[in-house]
Amino acid sequence: MTLNRLALAFCLSLIPCTVFSHQAPIQSPQGVALATQAMAALTGTTQVNDITLTGTATRTAGSDVESGSITLRALGTAESRLDLSANNGTRTEIRNLDSNSASQGFWIGLDGIAHSMANHNCATDAAWFFPALSVLSQLSNPDLVVTYIGNETRGDVSVQHLHFLLQSPVPSALVQQLGAEDVYLDASSNLPVAITFNAHPDNDASANLPVEVDFSNYQAVNGVQVPFRIQRLLNGSVLFDLTIQSATVNSGLTAAAFSPN
User: Fold this and answer.
1) What are φ and ψ of residue 171, in 5° steps?
2) Domain boundaries, the chain
3) Separation between Cα atoms, residue 106 and residue 174, nearest integer Å
């Protein structure tokens, strides 16, 4: 989640310049404690730098249904890559940083051409498929606001609901909400069962398209808890249904793996 970098590149053009005081965020001690416990449950004492997941996937977009093999990679919290190989071709989604260290994204369809993602869709987790490199891992960011919403029931699971917001140097409610995320932790294990946020049409940052990522079947890989079943929903419908077959932690991925070229 790189909204502090995105703000200067995208949102200063949307609002008038304003002089204001940037105040330190007010943290929820219970929210910070739960997020810390979640990271401990996910990684133990292992420092996670990168992840590679491989498996099978079904992508459903309206009447368009594709199934095939999938590879998901992430380096830190800002770079990720999804490659879906189906019978009709390959689809790729990439998140990385530009020359000014601002978050950017690309998607490559069946035509093999790289298309830029709208900047307002690059403010949430790049590694949306791997909780250990999600917003939970960014507690050291002094601008990150963590709020404890409460204990809830999600499906048949008791969860602790956390809300994350990155305080932006741009005084705009819209800007702040672009990177907002909610994380739901299993109340017993502290492992994330879901992360939710909003995507937006390319031409309208103010219109919300709810995204939900569900995690299950966690398995330990080199001391790190990895979800081997992942579903990504868009507007309540399953977009990606992933079954992970193998996971490699800290293989030494470099930024070159996340180039659209």
Assistant:
1) -75, 75
2) 3-14+27-46+55-250
3) 23
Q: Closest by alpha carbon to 165, among 157, 175, 155, 156?
A: 175
Per-residue pLDDT at 166:
85
Which own/partner pairs from 214-223 qualify as long-range (CB within 8 Å, at least 24 positions apart)?
A: 215/131, 215/191, 218/189, 218/191, 219/247, 221/247, 221/248, 221/249, 222/46, 222/249, 222/250, 223/43, 223/44, 223/45, 223/46
C-alpha closest to that of 100 among 2, 5, 179? 5
Q: Where are the beta strands (DSSP E) in 114-208?
A: 114-116, 144-154, 157-166, 181-186, 192-199
Residues of the chain with pLDDT under 50: 1-22
Q: How many CA atoms lie within 13 A of 76 on its CB side?
A: 12
Inter-residue contact 127 to 134 (CB < 8 Å): yes
d(CA 109, CA 89): 8
What string of DSSP letters covers 13-71?
A: TTS-------PPP---HHHHHHHHHHHHHHHTT----EEEEEEEEEEEETTEEEEEEEE
Say what the pTM is: 0.89
Which CATH code is given to the segment(s) 3-14+27-46+55-250? 2.50.20
